[in-house]
Give the backbone structure.
Amino acid sequence: MSPTFRIHEAVDESHLGADALTPLRDIVDDTRSDLTCRRISQWLARCVEHHDTCKAKANFTPTRVIAVGSSGDNQRLDGVVITNTWNFQRHCISIVLNSLAATIQDAIFVCRGLGIHFLWVDALCIIQDDGNDWLRESARMRLVYSNAYLTIVAHNAASSKEGFLGKQFFGQPSWQRRFCSNRARLQRKYHLRVGIVPFSLEMWQEFSKVEERGWTLQECILSPRLVHFTGLELVWECEQGPSLCECGHMMACGAAGQPTKTQFSQYGIDNITNQSWMRLVGDFTSRNLSRQSDRLIALSGLAEMVYARTNKTRTYLAGLWSSNLQEQLLWHSYNTQRSRPSPPTAPSWSWASLGTPIMWEGPWMELGLSQVEVHYDECFCNLLVQSNAFGAVTSGELAIEGFVQAVCVVTVEAPNSASSDAQESGLTFLGAPNGVRIFVFSDLSHAIDIQSANPRAQCWRGHCSSDGDGWCGKCRLSPEKWQEGRYYCLQVVANPIVGITVGTNFSGGPPIEELQFYFLLLERFSGSEDIFERVGMAGSECIDPRSWGLSQRSKSRKDKSGEDILPFFPDAEWKKIRIV
């Protein structure tokens, strides 16, 4: 690591008021020292006294907490049971301190130093081997974290077996050197020391283990106050104001390398949009979960908070929101997998049905034209726990009307593929009878249909010298391929490509624009006529079909604003389908 140096002026802290910026301080050398708790206490006291938005939102007490005792109680802890449901007899009366994981022991040390009497730790306060208790308590995560007095975030502990207290990187003497400077106009000598540049994204990711774990995303965003033990220096975050690192820097919202809470505060949970929600989902799915069945549960507290703060005007459907649902359906997977988890963790149209990181096409859809009609009164999810509308589901169904086209699906070996796994080295395309071929972001991997050396592979990859119907002699498919009736394409959104106008519509209609069309690739479900599963997402550019003439207008539909919806595929049929 190559440090960058800046010189800061030392500040006397005795005159600080509520609105003063955090002054330059020496960084604590070892967080096991009493100075650590004194520093956190200063941040905490200022927040408690002056920040109304950081106060607990409800009079809530967790089902179970741990009474940490005082610093003189070095042997045993009292287990405080708020209800009488704790049947975990081994820890019911007391806990031997040294029997706890190192991270929990360190958390107890911090609580005692701050004068905090009770600690909530999920590993101890939720009975891990009792499925019913785990489901019940995991549904209360929002209340636990949003009403916490303080949340301790241990970035530098890879697991609970590793403690988070100890030497800090920026607390080393080499980072604490002091310099002298004479200011003639003030006629006195100032002490200066080396300053530390704010965290870079690479530095934060290198030192932070928290950013790798799925559960910690909602924990950090929900908590009104957090103190981060990064291994570099201490960092403070709260609802009101930017995050503060120990050396005195203030991190503005939106900058790279920030703690999770500060990153997402730029959107404002009160006004969260589809775009910011799906960005949050993208972050969440890139993190690790020990059980894929926890995907919806580990985000349920955050979803519940969004629902509450948006006046309960949206319906939550397995990780998506009913407002502009069609746009949120256009996620795709970073990496394909062989199959969905068994038993299913979500319906196929939800990102939670897969165990891979996902991306979303939404940032380019501010001007998107919906190409479907969603029948929200017929959309539903079957909940695993009926009392938790934001948790795990067992199944779900969407009812949608739109243009549907029968297609074939072909997987071509990727050129110069280095993978030894044939199912992970293919490019999947959908093809329509008129010769249109579109690359597909597949949810699941497919066996290779065409090897890279086969001349047909070039056709599917976009180098086809087609005849009038869009097919050449090499790539033309047999009639049987079209009669399979296995795969279908649903036209979902058409998005104008900003700044591209192809020409003037001399018939008096709107200007001829270039549009980006987005589709869902569907597979017929168990032989049903109108029930499908999602298996991928695709996109293709096209001149606005509204300029194509009367032949297409015979199939046109009107959306709710009166705009024409025309089929991308000439033979597409407008129909109502169900996606499970």
